[in-house]
């Protein structure tokens, strides 16, 4: 067991020595040999901060310098999202430092932009993130830096304090949700059946209402017709009374009606006395103390 551990330690030491030698060798490469002008390695692809060390900066004075800090109301692309993520993580506003140099073999001006994402000051603290890259334009480089900063913040692997507990209880929560869904489905089915019954009852009540309205309309028409007939009969009676008065006046004042008695002969009167009660059964009152009249036959 001890021999295996010693072998592993020797392999680790050799790997570290080889990596350090490779770093020194890469740092000693001249700018012309490391990356030709037409290469897109430094201009079109996002790379970590160590990529800038592939080309040693010549001791040239910076032509222009710029500084940009989020949180001042800017409207660049990805700025609002990066600022929101930084505030959510409790980090200070990210900063971007730019230096314009003319150290390329073709004499083209390029910006070396460094992004500084400072860590959280209060515990639990977070690490500081620094990375640099080259871009031919300040605004394009700034947009590129904002995008990479947002990607680096979102790509950090930070364990969630409650995610494990939540994942362990997902089965129980799913079971409870299934029970709630079953109860809701049963209640919905009962409510649907009740709604169907209420719809049928409403249809029956609507038909009854239409029938009652038709009956009421017929009765109203019958009442109007009877009132007109009564008015006609009253007019006829009044005309006959006037005619009787005229006849009485013409006959010298003889009372043709015989006072309060009705005009009839004795034979008719005797027959009326002998009439049995069965002949007048049709005049007896009904349950509501009124005599039913067949209106349909009175026309």
Automatic annotation (TrEMBL):
Residues 1-27 form the signal peptide. It comes from the Eukaryota. Residues 247-283 are annotated as: Disordered. Keywords: Signal. Residues 264-282 have a biased composition (Acidic residues). This is Uncharacterized protein. It comes from Lolium multiflorum.
């Amino acid at each position: 067991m001890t021999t295996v551990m010693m072998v592993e330690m020797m392999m680790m030491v050799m790997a570290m020595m080889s990596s350090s030698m490779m770093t020194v060798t890469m740092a000693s490469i001249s700018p012309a040999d490391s990356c030709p002008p037409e290469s897109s390695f430094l201009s079109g692809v996002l790379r970590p901060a160590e990529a800038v060390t592939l080309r040693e900066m010549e001791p040239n004075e910076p032509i222009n310098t710029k500084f940009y800090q989020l949180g001042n109301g800017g409207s660049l692309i990805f700025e609002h999202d990066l600022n929101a993520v930084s505030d959510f993580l409790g980090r200070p506003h990210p900063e971007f430092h730019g230096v314009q140099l003319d150290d390329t073999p073709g004499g083209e001006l390029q910006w070396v932009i460094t992004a500084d994402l400072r860590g959280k000051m209060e515990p639990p603290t977070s690490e500081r993130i620094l990375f640099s890259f080259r871009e031919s334009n300040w605004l394009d480089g700034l947009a590129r830096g904002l995008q990479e900063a947002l990607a680096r913040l979102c790509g950090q692997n930070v364990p969630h304090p409650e995610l494990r507990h939540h994942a362990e209880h997902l089965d129980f929560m799913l079971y409870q949700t299934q029970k709630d869904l079953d109860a809701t489905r049963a209640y919905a089915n009962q409510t649907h059946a009740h709604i169907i019954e209420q719809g049928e009852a409403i249809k029956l009540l609507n038909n009854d209402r239409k029938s009652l309205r038709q009956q009421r309309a017929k009765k109203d028409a019958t009442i109007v017709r009877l009132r007109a007939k009564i008015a006609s009969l009253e007019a006829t009676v009044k005309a006959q009374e006037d005619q009787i008065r005229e006849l009485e006046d013409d006959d010298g004042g003889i009372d043709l009606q015989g006072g309060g008695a009705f005009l009839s002969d004795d034979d008719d009167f005797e027959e009326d006395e002998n009439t049995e009660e069965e002949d007048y059964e049709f005049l007896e009152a009904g349950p509501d103390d009124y005599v039913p009249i067949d209106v349909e036959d009175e026309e």
